[in-house]
Amino acid sequence: MSFLSGKFHSKWARLTFCFLFLLPLLYPFLLKPGEQLYSDHLGKFILGESVERNGFLSGNLVLPSRSLDPEGNYCPTECIRIGDELISPFPAALGYVYAIFLPWSGIVGVYVVTAILILLSFLFLSSLWDWDPIYLGVLVLASPFLVNGYFFPDVGIASFLFLAGSFLFLRSGPSSSWFRFVSAGFISASSAWFRIESIVFPLFFIFFLSIYKFYNVEERRRILGYSVGFFAGVVLLLGIQYVLYGHPLGPRFSFNQPTMFLPPWKKWEIYSGLLIANPNRLGFFGYTPGFLFVLFFFLYYILIKKNPLRRSIAFEVSNRDLFIFSGLGAFLALVVSAPNDGIIDFGSRYLHLSLPAFAGMFLILFENIGEKFRKVAKIVLYSILLYSVYISYSYTQILGKYGRKTTKLNAIYLEQKPDLVVVQIRTYSQILGKYFFQTPSVWLMREADIKNFFSKNNPEGFEKILFVQTKASILENLNDADPFLRNKYYASISQALGPDFKKVWSENREDVLLFSMERKK
C-alpha cells in the first residue's frame, strides 16, 4: 500500500519519514521529565518510589505524612485503604517500572525508556503498513498517539505491549509454531497490567478473527493459540489482583465504579467529554475530527462491503484489516462502557489503543473514495488533518508550559523550607515535586478537615507550615488588596493553629494563594 505512488524513495520523503519515526526521542526535550511531577504524574512517581523503598515486596505507599494521618484520610495523592495498607489506584506494574529506573536514572530514565518503546511501536506499525509515510504521518502528527504515549507512561507501555503481541501474530504464518501464537496472545494481554481497558482490544481481535477466519482450518490453529495465550494472561492478571486487592479489576475500579454501571442514557455528560470536549480537555474527536468521518465510513464498510454474513468475501479480509476492525469495535465498546474519564481527563487517553486502527481505517477510506470526488474529498480531509496537527503542536506547548510552571512552585518550597505542607487541592502537591519524600504533606480541602487534622496533630509539633490554597474557593470573596479578608479557609487555619502562629510570607498567584505560618519563637 503506497499513497505516494513510488515517491517514497525521494530524498524528502525519506527525510520526512525518518523525522516522524524518530520524533519520540525529541519529546524528553520538549516535555522535560523533571517538570512532569504533578497531579497523576507525581502519584505514579510516589508509587514507584514506594515500591523501591519496600524492596519490591509491596506497593504500600511510603508517605512522609503517614504518622500524622495513619488512616490515610488526607493523602496528598490518590490512595485507597486496603487492610493496613494505603494503595495507589495507579497500576502496580507501572510502579515496578518506575522503581527499576528511579535509583540510577531518576525520573528521566522512565520517560526516556517510554520514548524508546513508542519508537518501537512505530517500527511495528510501519512494518505492518508497508512503511507508508501517510499512515505514520496521520498517527504521529494528527492524533495524540505520541504525546499521550509519552506523557502518560502507563499508556505508552500498554500500547507497546499490545502492538508487540499483535505484530508477532500478524507477522506469523499458518506454519509458525504454536508457542509463537500463544506468546503473541500473552504479550497482548500483558498490556492490561498497565491499562486495564486494553483487555478489550485483543478480545475484539479474537472476535473478528473468529467471524472471518475460523472456518479455515489453518487459521483456526493460529486463532486458538492466540486465544489461549490471551486468556492465560488475563486470568493471571485478574487472579493476582483479586488476591491482592479483593477485586479482579484492581484498585482503580474503586475510583471508576460509581459511573461504570450507569445506563448509557445517563452518561451523556461523560460521552460528550470523552468524544468531543469538556471545560478542561478536548475529547477524542475534538482532537482529530477527521476520525469521525472514519468511524462512519467503518460502519458502512463493515456492514455493506465486508459483511461477514456474505461468506464469499471472507477470503478478501486480511489479518491487518481485522486488526483495524477490532480496534474500532473495541472503541465502540469502550465508549458505551466509559467510566468517569470523559469528565475528568483527556478522552483519547482512555481510547488510546484504537488510534492505530483509526489511522489504518483512514487509509482505507482514501482508497475507497470515488474518482469523481477524490480531489475534493482529499482537500477536505487533509484540511481537517491540518487542524489536528495544529492541536498536537499546541497540546505539546501547553503541557510544556504547565510543566515549567510546576518547577517554579518547587522553588517556592525550597525557599520556604517548611516542615509541613498543606494543600487544598491534591494537584498542588506538585509544589514538592521530586522533594516529595523530604517533607510531610497533607490534603485538607475544607475547613472541617483543618480542624480535625490539627485536633489530632498538635500544631506545636511544627515550626513552619506552608499552605497552598486554591483561589477558586474564594474567588467570589477575593479582595485584591488583601486576599486574606473574608477568607474562611485562612480563618479556619488561624483558629486551628492558635495565636502562637503568625503569617510570615504570602504570594497571590493567578490560581493559588500561597502563605507560610510560622510559630513564634
From TrEMBL:
Positions of transmembrane segments: 12-31, 96-129, 199-216, 223-245, 284-302, 322-338, 350-367, 379-396
Keywords, sorted A to Z: Membrane, Transmembrane, Transmembrane helix
Top-level taxon of the source organism: Bacteria
NCBIfam families, per the entry: LA3751_2_3_fam
Protein's name according to its UniProt entry: Glycosyltransferase RgtA/B/C/D-like domain-containing protein
